[in-house]
């Protein structure tokens, strides 16, 4: 269950943050502080994610007819902003330590704590990502990748501290240099998270998901599905919304059109294994579309079939029927 998994992630983030803060207090290393500040982001993001995933799973109501899935994007936007702020704070601390360097202490114990927290982060990230893919939860998948990225950065921090330990604190500048490098990486990560969340809030096209939907329909299209156009696909939480205009033979009865809509809906639901809501507008075919209609037993055909139009991102989003572009 996504909510239960996110609850574990939130609790774990608090434990890891306290461990890293202890490591920083023991070593006075600005590099360890970098890791601890990133853990603050993980902790806040964990509880924001828990709130958002709970809200996103609420059923739609009169105030939110499309559901509450966009809460995930708002949570990600806050998380991205916090990551960027953490990067700025690390840069400030690193510059301070370059100007006024001080000797590090208890590196052995600090290394053990950081190494243990990094290992826990990696395992928790793998678990969260797997659960997110299984439940189609963007929050869990993002949290999983974030935790794994945090674990990878911890490896580099450990290497920097080991060099300081081996050189007996002779390379004092190394601590701040490693921190500055990772501050830049943290800020880039924050920008990517923020950019993705804004894209979701602005309903930017998910090209990968749209291509997958189009390929699925293309490979399973029926002869009576004369045309598709004005298609839009949006994912809000676990709910996928598909809007499109479907062209069917003009002489189809309402019950025939209803059957085709349900067939398209069943096709998409079976493939994506999650909640799908379709809004399909039915159009009757026009004489000029006979040229792209492969329905062999059509009793009203006025022009011979010439070619089947391959549906693509470029031609499915247009709000007009296809067929006029095919020359006789």
> What general form does the structure show?
elongated
What distance separates the N and C termini? Answer: 56 Å
Overall number of strands: 3
Indicate the CATH architecture of the largest domain: Up-down Bundle
Radius of gyration: 27 Å
Percent helix among the residues? 55-70%
Strand order of the largest sheet: 1-2-3
- The topology string of helices and strands comes to HHHHHHHEEHEH
Mind telling me the CATH superfamily name of the largest domain? Cation efflux protein transmembrane domain
CATH structural fold name of the largest domain: Alpha-lytic protease prodomain-like
- Sheet-strand content, in percent, reads 5-15%
The CATH class of the largest domain turns out to be Mainly Alpha
Number of domains: 2
Low-confidence stretches: none
What structural class should be given to the helix and strand makeup? mainly alpha
The whole-number mean of residue pLDDT values reads 80
Quick one: biggest sheet? 3 strands, mixed
How many distinct helices?
A: 9
């Amino acid at each position: 269950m996504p909510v239960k998994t996110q609850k574990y992630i939130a609790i774990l983030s608090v434990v890891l943050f306290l461990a890293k803060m202890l490591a920083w207090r023991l070593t006075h290393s600005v590099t360890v502080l970098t890791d601890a500040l990133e853990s603050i982001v993980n902790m806040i993001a964990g509880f924001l994610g828990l709130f958002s995933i709970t809200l996103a799973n609420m059923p739609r109501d009169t105030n939110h007819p499309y559901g509450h899935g966009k809460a995930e994007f708002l949570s990600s936007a806050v998380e991205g902003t916090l990551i960027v702020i953490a990067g700025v704070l690390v840069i400030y601390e690193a510059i301070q330590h370059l100007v006024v360097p001080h000797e590090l202490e208890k590196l052995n114990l600090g290394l053990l704590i950081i190494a243990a927290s990094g290992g826990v982060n990696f395992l928790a990230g793998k678990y969260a990502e797997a659960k997110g893919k299984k439940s189609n939860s963007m929050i869990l998948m993002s949290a999983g990748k974030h935790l794994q990225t945090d674990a990878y950065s911890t490896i580099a921090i450990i290497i920097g501290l080991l060099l300081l330990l081996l050189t007996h604190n002779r390379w004092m500048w190394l601590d701040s240099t490693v921190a500055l490098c990772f501050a830049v990486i943290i800020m880039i990560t924050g920008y990517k998270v923020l950019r993705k969340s804004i894209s979701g809030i602005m309903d930017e096209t998910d090209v990968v998901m749209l291509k997958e939907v189009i390929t699925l329909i293309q490979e399973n299209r029926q002869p009576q599905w004369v045309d598709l156009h004005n298609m839009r696909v949006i994912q809000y939480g676990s709910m996928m919304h598909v809007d499109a205009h479907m062209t069917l033979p003009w002489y189809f009865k309402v019950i025939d059109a209803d059957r085709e809509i349900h067939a398209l809906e069943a096709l998409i639901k079976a493939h994506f294994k999650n909640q799908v809501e379709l809004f399909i507008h039915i159009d009757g075919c026009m004489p000029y579309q006979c040229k792209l209609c492969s329905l062999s037993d059509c009793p009203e055909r006025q022009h011979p079939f010439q070619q089947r139009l391959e549906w693509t991102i470029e031609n499915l989003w247009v709000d007009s029927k296809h067929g006029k572009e095919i020359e006789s």
